[in-house]
Structure formats: structure tokens, C-alpha cells
Amino acid sequence: MIEPNKEAAANRASRCACRIYRALKMLSGGSGAIVTLLAMAPVAVAQTSDGPVAGEAWWTGPIVASSGGTLPRGHLLVEPYIFDVRSAGSDYAGSLTYLLYGATDRLTIGLIPTAGSSRSAGSNRGRRLGINDLTLTAQYRMHQAAPGERMPTWSLVVQEVLPLGRFDRLHGDPDRGIGGGVYTTIIGIYAQRSDILASGRTIRTRLNATYSLPTATDVRDASIFGTREGFDGRARPGRSLFIDMSVEYSLSRSWALACDGFYRYTASAHVSGRLPSGEAFSANTAARRSFAAAPAIEYSWSATRGVLLGVRRIFPARAEPGSWTPVFAFNAYF
Question: Which of 42, 61, 187, 260 is the most buried (most CB within 10 A)?
Fold first, then answer.
């Protein structure tokens, strides 16, 4: 018998999975074209991998997409990223580190800590490095593709974002607001496959689809939600759909080219409460859609060590100013 709270959590996860499926079906015109595309396309590895395989090209993986496979039992992947998000009017320099462990051959668990500092254009304040949000992750492999099989390797993923970064009580310094401010549950599907071309080179493709469910949070004073000093209320960020497809091409055993292309839709956020005057306040932000590309080059000097250098470009759109983000990552498999 399922306890009431566990039954509610199970129902919530089921609804999230259905939403992801419906979104993928909608994007594929209801014909299953995305699934067919992945089955026909050639795959990759990066934050999560099946581990080095003798005779294959050595990969670090693309900038954004995660592997559809899991780590072998008892193995560890450490992959720190350093990046600098540059957009009109602001600059955020930060780090993100994947710390993943193969609990079993089919289950990978881990942490993704982040940190960074923000600086607005024209600000005369010095940068303040701060701890940002922490993500707990679990990935369960549902299918391991056999050599030559059309069905890709794929996994179910559940993540929980813990709001450790500062987001309100900014006291006149908006650059201190670097966190998301809310607990967020993320449900997703990661898939990947690989093919050897007639030239002997390997091409690998990944597809990631996730759906994010943020909670509401209390907000005091100036915050990342646009509130000012003296405000007292609550904010609920919008739910988000994220779809990413990446391709990697091996130039040699050590060198590879990679590129991500992704789409993100974030529903409008709602903020309500009282202004310093005591007047009630309620507002919704605009929903946002963003498209991005992230080309990169990979170099690995062994099957277990490598580096990645690239740039992520989010294109300007309605309610999205756009940004350039140079990225460097180091990949170590133990």
C-alpha cells in the first residue's frame, strides 16, 4: 500500500512525465518524429557517461546535453565548468561542478554545486563570490542499446534544486541576487546513440527533455523578482520546459567537435504581497522563450581525462535579452 504522501509524489511525477511526452509529441507534429529522429541519428557523452570503452574515440561531451547512459557501479565522474555569462547590462562569472557516482550499473546519483558573482554595468561595487543553488540528481537507465540497435540508450532523470543562493533582502545591491530562490523538482528523459560513419569517424547524438516544477517562496525587500525595499509577499516562478539536442563528431581519438541546440519555455511568474505603503500588490511577469546554440571543441589525452572549450549563444527574443557565454570544462573519470 502506498502512503498518501508517496502516492501524491508518484502522481505528480506521472503527470510531469505525461507533460514531457505531450510536449515532445507536439513538437514532432504528433507523429513521433523526434523519437524517430533520434533512432536514425547518430550520440554523445559528457556529464554522465557509460565509462570509457576500448577502441572508441575519447569524449568529454558537449556543453549542455547530458548522457542517456549511466556510470558503471563504483565509478566516479568529476566535471567542473567555469563560465562567464555576458549580456546587455550585466555579467555573471560562475562555476558548476558535476559530482556523479555509479551506485549500480543502472543508477547514477550525484550533486551539482554552483557558485558565482554578478556585476551590473556601471556598478562601482566590487564582485562578491557567493554560493549558488545546489542540485541533487538521480538517473536510472531504462535501456542500454546493443551495438547496431536502432533504439537509443535512454534514462529517466529526477533532480531537486535546493535554493542556497541569495535571492532577496538585497539591500540596494542587486548584484548579490544570484540564486533562484525556490525549491524546484525536475523530471526528465535523457537519450543517446552512436554510429560509425563510412569514413570510420564516430558521430554521437543526445536528446534531453526536462520539465521543471518550482515551488513558491516568501520574498522580503529587494529581490531577483523585481521587488523593492519594504516589500513583503510571495513569488512563484513559472514552470519550464527544456529540450536540447547535441551532436559530436570525432576528428581523431583525442579530438572532437560538438554542438548543442536547445529550446526553453518558461511560463510567467506571479508575485504578490504588500508594498511599503501597505498597498496590496499583484503582478505576473511575461512568459519567456529562448533558443540557443553551443558549439565546442573537445580534447582528451586519455580515455579518462579531457577538456572542453566552447561558447553558448542565447539569441535575443521577446523578454529574453540574449547572451554570450564562454565555457571551459575539465572531465575526469575514476
Answer: 61
Residue type, position 16, single letter:
C
Number of structural domains the chain divides into: 1
Query: Which pTM was predicted?
Result: 0.82
DSSP helix, strand, coil percent of the chain (3-state; round to 5): 10, 50, 40
231 band by pLDDT with thresholds 50, 70 and 90? very high
pLDDT at 127 (0 to 100): 72
> Could you tell me which residues are beta bridge partners of residue 184?
161, 214
Task: Enumerate residues 6+ apart whose C-beta is below 8 A from 36.
Answer: 28
Closest CA to 107 of 52, 48, 36: 48
User: What is the domain extent for residue 26?
Assistant: 4-333
Q: Which set of grid coordinates corresponds to residue 270?
A: 506571479
CATH of the domain at 93: 2.40.160.40
How far, in Å, CA of 56 to CA of 68, rounded?
17
If one compares 32 and 242, the residue with the highest pLDDT of the two is 242
As a whole number of angstroms, the distance between CA 16 and CA 225 comes to 25
How far apart (Å, rounded) are the C-alpha atoms in residues 21 and 244? Answer: 14
Do 239 and 42 touch, CB atoms closer than 8 A? Answer: no
H or E element at residue 325: strand 323-333
User: Which residue, among 56, 66, 97, has the nearest Cα to 332 in the 3D structure?
Assistant: 97
